[in-house]
């Protein structure tokens, strides 16, 4: 397994299925500028070829996972985060993508959005 990859095995009862996750690259943006960030296709890979992974995006603030702020949206069909950072934004945001398959396995990938 390469650097940045990890296996998350949330299987119960001896099920050997799991989701492999690779943390996306961090990104930078500026206040007032529209940005679009597409998660790489290999961010989540199900060990079962029939696995279907659904992804949700959250933000991590002071160790607490929360819904995205109003200025950020996530399109789980396109796997894209979009937004316009407000002028009073913090310098750093940690986004957490959570992938779940139909068997209940779950894995999370985090990346930073730096505002400069």
Layout of helices and strands, plus pairs?
Layout lengths: L4 E4 L10 E4 L4 E3 L4 E5 L5 E3 L6 E9 L2 E3 L5 E4 L4 E5 L7 E10 L4 E10 L1
Instruction: Characterize the overall form.
Output: elongated
CATH evolutionary superfamily? Immunoglobulins
- CATH fold label: Immunoglobulin-like
Overall helicity: under 10%
CATH architecture: Sandwich
Strand order of the largest sheet: 3-11-10-6-7
3D structure, described in words:
This protein is mostly beta strands and 116 residues long. The protein has strands spanning 5-8, 19-22, 27-29, 34-38, 44-46, 53-61, 64-66, 72-75, 80-84, 92-101, 106-115. Strands 3-11-10-6-7 form a five-stranded mixed β-sheet, with no helix packed on it. 17% of the residues are buried. The model is unreliable at 9-13 (pLDDT under 50).
Quick recap:
The protein has 116 residues and is an all-beta fold. Helices cover 0% and strands 52% of the residues. It has one domain (5-115): Sandwich (Immunoglobulin-like).
């Amino acid at each position: 397994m390469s650097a940045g990859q990890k296996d998350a095995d949330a299987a119960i009862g001896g099920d050997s299925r799991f989701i492999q996750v690779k943390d996306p690259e961090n990104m930078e943006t500026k206040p007032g500028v529209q940005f679009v960030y597409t998660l790489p296709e290999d961010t989540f890979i199900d060990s079962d070829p029939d696995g279907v992974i659904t992804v949700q995006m959250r933000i991590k603030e002071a160790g607490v996972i929360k819904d995205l702020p109003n200025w950020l949206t996530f399109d789980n069909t396109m796997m894209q985060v979009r937004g316009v950072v407000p002028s009073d934004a913090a310098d750093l945001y940690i986004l957490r993508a959570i992938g779940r398959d139909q068997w209940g396995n779950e894995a999370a990938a985090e990346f930073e959005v730096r505002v400069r």
